[in-house]
Amino acid sequence: MGQNITDANIFLVCGLGNLGQHCVSVLKEFGVKVNAIEANHIKKWQVPDLPDLVDNLVIGDCRQPKILEQAGIRQCRAILIVTSDEGVNIAAAFAARSLNSNARLIIRSAQENLNELLRENLGNFAAFEATRLPAKTFALFAYSSETRGFFNLENRLMRVVKVKIDASHHWCDRRQICEINNSNRRVITHVRTRKPLPRRFYHWEPDAQIQEGDTITYIEATEKPVLHPPRTKSSPWLFLRAIATGMRWQNLRSLVTQFWEESSQTQRVAAVCGMVMVSLFLCGTLLYKLQYPKFTWQDALNVSLVLSIGGFDNLFGQFQVSSSLSIPWWLHLFSISITVAGTVFIGILYAMMTERVLAARFQFSKRRLPVPKADHVVLIGLGRVGQQIAKLLQELKQPLVGIHPTELEPGVLPQIPLIHGNIKNALCKVNIATAKSVIVVTDDEVANLEIGLLAHAANPTANLAIRTFDPRFSENIARLLPYARVLGAYMLSAQAFAAAAFGENIHSLFRLNNQTTLVAEYQIVAGDSLYGKLLAEVAYGYGVVPISYFMATEKTLKFMPSDDTKLNEGDRLVVLATIEGLQRVERSMVAEPQWLVRVERALSEEAVFEGARVISRVTGCEMVIARTIMKQLPSTLNPLYKHQAYRLVSQLSKSQVVARITN
């Protein structure tokens, strides 16, 4: 991470399918040398001019050491293994690690448990699933709320929110932009009405007043969620286990209460009948033993068991009554009661078993939910990407209906309405005229365009997202259809794969202001491009937004850390960054500070001391230099970044030091 680009040597991409081609394209934007391995000759490239981008293309099996050697694997800094076959990817990862023990391995794999084991055994390893990375972007677009992105970070939910300020908003005409920032929130962008969307962060004035019509995007960290241990579903077996382990009466009573509250009516009846039958069985055994001392305990148990399973006629129909073995009337009546109760209990058991069998049998043919009437999402194409989008929309509690050319397996997305067959004919069956959003993600981009046009004609007000593959095709559609969101799924994923190849841990990605924003984690190493810098220099110099910082020496974690924080070896920093921002970090391309702060005067002797402390903290200069400045007022400081300069003037004012910003 953060090495100079001249140290990069070679980046190797194994597999030049859609994802692999986009990975090459993104890597070349970093200005590095890219070699590639492809199993077969490709006649048609999805990314134009890709053969010109690859420095060395080797045709062969990327699992073979000889092929890897031809691609220069021993000089590789990172190896991206992104074929469509996960088995090939994993085998190639082991082969690559055996030839290069230091290169960073990035593979395409959806096997989460296996990926964790590979990470432990291969080292310097990351794995992503190409269909999951862009799915959240599609889902959030369809959701059409203020949320533009969300992800988990250190057990905290991080949410990216884009809000349009109206006259009733509590910030309107009451707050400056800088006043929104706090320990749980950080402003990303601020756009005035009818102004173009910014391509970089921090293109806003810190002291700007929030006005009606403004659009503000910020990231916030919610409180750490309270994790409740899962409650184990009660069952009659738990009673036996509780008794066997010597559970106290208070705990047993609590368990019985829990079972009674959580169980169904049928389960309650079965439990009560079961306890009654056990009681009758034990009582019958005891009564027959006491009434007939010659009976053994086994004989008494047999008689009671036969009566319990409805064998009264088998027992007494052939029973010869003699003077020495007479049955009292009360025992005879008790025997009849056991038989009747046993028959009823067996009937209940048969009913429960029949219910379970029928439920299991008809579960597969259960009819899906009806199509929503209005304010729903129409999801067209339920392949791997479509299914991931559907699951995310279900998590967001968003009504949706799916359209797919063929019928899905009964166990796939059983909780959503589904129309299968000809997609064009299916559009009239999903209430598309009242839908909120339409997402078209089939595997044919031309068909996606045609379906998108039909959907827009039927509902011009609906949000429309179209999945594409060819970058030129995407650009042309985006220009011709300004009302549609054209998203290249593999391009979104490739940006995460490429960023991870440079050593960054990519937590998530989302679309903001028509470009991809990545959540990247940096491990600070002595001598890299971030080591020893203030967060202000990192944020404003590279154009990234720090959102969490782990200090290695004190083992402390801070969200939305202060600009005054200095990065040391072993620290971890998580930032929001565009591909351009990651490139600037990788190449150590720091924007030059251009804003001057003129310190005029201190209003008291104490202000002189406090002013020096503030200058040292905010600018990062030595305390001796800061004290010299305060003793030689008025004085002009070295150039700072705009937001850094504004913060310094604000902090000096609180310390009774007069200062101003000059150009």
From TrEMBL:
Alphabetized InterPro entries for the sequence: NAD(P)-bd_dom_sf (IPR036291), RCK_C (IPR006037), RCK_C_sf (IPR036721), RCK_N (IPR003148), Trk_Ktr_HKT_K-transport (IPR050721)
TM regions (residue ranges): 269-288, 329-352
Domain RCK C-terminal: 507-591
Keywords: Membrane, Transmembrane, Transmembrane helix
Statement: the UniProt record of this protein carries the keyword Flavoprotein: no
GO molecular function terms attached to this record: monoatomic cation transmembrane transporter activity
Keyword Transmembrane helix attributed: yes
Recorded superkingdom: Bacteria
GO biological process: potassium ion transport
PANTHER family: POTASSIUM CHANNEL PROTEIN 2-RELATED-RELATED, VOLTAGE-GATED POTASSIUM CHANNEL KCH
Designated name of the protein: NAD-binding protein
Source organism: Cyanomargarita calcarea GSE-NOS-MK-12-04C
